[in-house]
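Sample intake sheet
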Amino acid sequence: MGMTVRIATWNVNSVRQRLEHLLTWLKEAEPDVVCLQEIKCLNEAFPRLEIEAAGYNVAVHGQKTFNGVAILSRLPMEAQAGLPGDDEDTQARYLEAVVSHDGGVVRVASIYLPNGNGGPEKYAYKLAWMQRLRRHAASLLQLEEPLVLAGDYNVIPEPRDAKTPANWTQDALFLPETRTKYRKLIHLGFTDAVRATTDAGDVFTFWDYTAGAWRRNEGIRIDHLLLSPQAADRLRSASIDSHVRGWDKPSDHVPVRIDLG
């Protein structure tokens, strides 16, 4: 790879409400590729013009009011929407793109994994979706190319990924079955970029809007970039732009980014 490629993920919690934040952060962080989640709009309502004016190609997989994912790239890309394995699933939660750069390609997915709270049906959907993701990820690994599965996984992998793990024991993000399924995905051969670069505690990507969670640093780590061996070999750094959570009317998630050299 002749150049460094900076790849980020951010659940913006409504791209139209957060457009100013997004444009400010794009200028500040200068990512090459950005995976967005919870854009909460149809494709035609996505603020494409403003983002193209900032220098990015745009691929969008949206739906009305809920969910929705997008990939922004300063480099040429070819994108494909939808997670294989269930033709009945209409929720816009997965978008994959092959990004071309000097000397090669990197394959990137923007993932908005189901939350799973709200009853047995929703939890069953989450687990089934994770199963589909694992199957698809296994097939992508066979391509033996740099691959980054980035997004809001709605999974707290370990107790140290929550400020107060006891608050989450009954939550779909932290249930044993959720974490087991997530480990099975990792064990296919993925590297958690943030954990590959730090063992520190208090490394979070999400702080609830309620009860001063941000002020008390009552956070959890649920936004992850998982790297294939070919991408992990090129990992130079990983950072969490947590200061963005302190901006006026922020998303409850913050951007996470990596540099591949």
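Comment: The CA atoms of residues 137 and 185 lie 8 Å apart. The chain has one domain: 5-253.
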